[in-house]
Every structure is written in structure tokens, then in C-alpha cells.
Amino acid sequence: MSELFAGLQQLLGASHVQSCEQAAPYLTDKQGHYVGAVLAAVHPANTQEVAAVVRLCVQHNAPIVVQGGNTGLMGAATPDASGTAVLLLLDRMNRVREVDTDNDTLTVEAGCILQSVQDVARNAGRLFPLSLGAEGSCTLGGNLGTNAGGTAVLRYGNTRELTLGLEVVTAQGEIWNGLRGLRKDNTGYDLRDLFIGSEGTLGIITAATLKLFPLPKAQATALLAFESLGQAVEFLSHARAGFGASLTAFELLTADCLALLREHFPQGPQPFIKATQPWFALLELSDNHSDSHARDAFETVLGEAFDAELLADALIADSLAQSEALWQLRENMSEAQKRAGRNMKHDISVPISRVAEFVEHTNALLQAHFPGVRHYTFGHLGDGNLHYNVAHPIGSTVEAHMAHYEALSLLVHDSAHAHGGSISAEHGIGQRKLAMLPRYKSAVELDLMQRIKQALDPRGLLNPGKVLLSQNVKGNV
Ligand code: MLT
Ligand code: ZN
Question: For ligand 1, what atom is nearest to the CA of residue 331?
């Protein structure tokens, strides 16, 4: 047994330190793309123990990888295969530290499951609006580490916008208590925003103070059909003006997505079976008045849109059960694709005004280079964030298709970049997009990122091999 392993056992108690073999469930990412190894996996009970673990790792020059619910898509939480790292699991750190309804804030530890954070808020008569497919198993620490997005960003913002304060263990094993519930605090550099989205490469987030919102009194949901993506974007402008801040979600699906959902979830809802329109969007309105107020707003805004030919058809949910059924379509989309076999996933964003142009251009480009590939484009149209996924041509095999992943993704990412967009809107960089990043960031931006990393983690022990290459190599886009 190594000296470090014994030291960790002494620090945390033997039952909270696992060997590489015992830690096997944590060493493969959700997609099964990466498999790592560790010297030990540890489950500290509190922030002081996290800090002590970090100090011990520093003494032994051991890398530290922090993992939440292991639901990330970029391999950010999977250690490398060297077996030298200590994997830090914060599952025992799931306490609610404070609920302050006058300040509309909630302070919770990083190991809390997102759904339980939502429940704590609801039990206090408030809304914590971060919402995403993995909410039953992802943790707040992972949401903060990746600046998670989800389906309510349009109204409430990403995890970053929902966070007022953080507690962080530094790469030296100090504790920074920045758990301030302040909406205004202009006292120098914003350390909080540095740590959020840093994927465990700058510090270890152990707790956060989050913003709460009023619980909506009513919700209204509709699945809308459009003749073109351009029409959906025009409708979105109209809906923003008409609904104002009540517009909570505007999620895109295509006719091909609905067909895939029918095939893989035959018991699920089957709207618009006979529709000829190619584009659909799930719209949600949260209303702070009443059901009838929400319905009136819906009728006015959708009626105007029909008159102005901004909308081809609409299916309005007339009960909570119907609304949930429509949401099921959107939520089952990733799983439907998984059941259909491996496909190439992309998580791009472009300015909303350029979404239609991006899709038209990129679809044509892919058909020219990879004839017959099938497009499953869905996601957060209200944020300009599309999951631009590409499946194998009929008559070809998944394996043959996946062999072109790199070449095809390069076209997609170059196109997003050329349209003023990002190659990772909400899933982060991790190890999956590590080598691509220099192609799309300026030398100045990469250098600033490297210098921040160097200043906060000079020994490079925090989540090495993620987000930043050790050497900048500027690409040539
Ligand atoms: C989603 O919005 O459904 C996810 O971010 C996409 C995914 O899991 O691939
Ligand atoms: Zn998404």
C-alpha cells in the first residue's frame, strides 16, 4: 500500500477510501468513451477534510480529479489511465446549510443532487430553476464545475447566473469562503466566475449560495409547428416581445426527431403524426398571475402569430398531464438517439439570428462530403444552442459512420465558428474537446487562460489534461 493511500485512510477513515478496483464504477464516463484508473477514490465528509486531502496530495505530488454525478458528456470527470490520481467524490457533502427566503437564497453543499436542491427550494415556497435531463443524478458541484445550461436558460440563465457565492478549496488546500448572498459586490476581481465552468481545473467547489425565484402560479405549454427554421426564429422574436420575461423555454425538435421518438418510445405521446412541417418547438410560459392569465396571453400571442404567418400549427396542452407528455418528447430525445445506435453529437451555439443560416449551410456541407447522413437537430433554440447530431446514412453501418467523426465534426465546428458561434455551448471542454480548443480561441485568450491556471494551480495538480493543453498550439481557422 502506498504512503499516500495510507495517509488518506488515516485522514478520512479506511471506509471512506477506496482502491482503484473498488472505485471501478466511477472510472468510466456515462458515454463509455473514457476509462481511467486511480490511486484512490476518497469520500470526505466536509470542507475541512477536502482541504486536508488536497494538502496531502500536494505533498505527494498526486493529481486530484473531482467527480459529481458522473453525467458529463466531455469526459471532464474521468481521470487518466496512469493510476496516479486521487478521485474526490463529494457524495457525503450533501447538506443544506441555509435557506433564506427574505434574501431569496439557498446555501447547499456541492454533493447535493440537483433534484433535491429543486425540492428544498420548492418546500420553502421558491423555485430553483436549473433544470436538465440528468437532474435526478447530477450534482450541484458538477453543475457549477461545468456551468450547466438546460431547458430554462432562456428565462433564468446558466448555472453561473443562478449563483451568488461559492466556497472553494484551492489547489494549495486553503479554504476560500465566498458564500456571499449579495446581488451587488464590486470589490475587485470576480473569483466566483473564474471557478464556475472551470471543470475542476482551478479549485474544488464545495458549496454554493444560489438564487431563488418565486414559484410560478401557472404554466402553459404548446408544441408549435413551423414551415422553416427561419419562421421559428421569427416567431421567437414575436414571442419574446409578447410574453416578456414569462417566456421560459423554447426547445427545438424536427419532424425526424419526432419520428425517432415514435420509433423508440412507441408508448409515448405521438403528436403531429400527419404533419408536413419539418420544424417544431416546445414553448413554455411561466405566469405569476393565474391559469386564465396564462391562457389569455397564449391566445393573444399565438393568434397574432397565426395572422402574421409566423406559425403553421399549434398543439396547446390543456392539462398538466398533457404538458408533461409534451416535455417527455424533448426529454427523451437523447435516449431515443442512444437506442438508435451511436451518433455524432455536437453542442454548438450561434447567435439566434444566424441559426437558420448555420443549419442550412452546414446540412448542405455535410451532404456534399458525407452523402446520406441523417440530421437530428434539436435543443435550446431560445439560447441559440443546438444539439446538432448526425446519424449514419440508411444502408451504411454505425461503425463506418463513426470512423468519420473527427472529419465531420471539424466541418460542423468550423461552420459554427464561421457563424460567430461556439463549439461547446453547455457541455464544456473536458478531454473530448481539449485538442480542438486552440483552433477556435485566439492566442491572447488561450494565453490568458494559461496564466490564470498557472497562478491558481502552479503545479498543475487539479484535473490535469482537461480544458487546457499544457502547451498552447494556435490553430489556423
Ligand atoms: C439535452 O439538451 O438534451 C442534452 O444537453 C443533450 C444530450 O444529452 O446530448
Ligand atoms: Zn442540452
Answer: 3
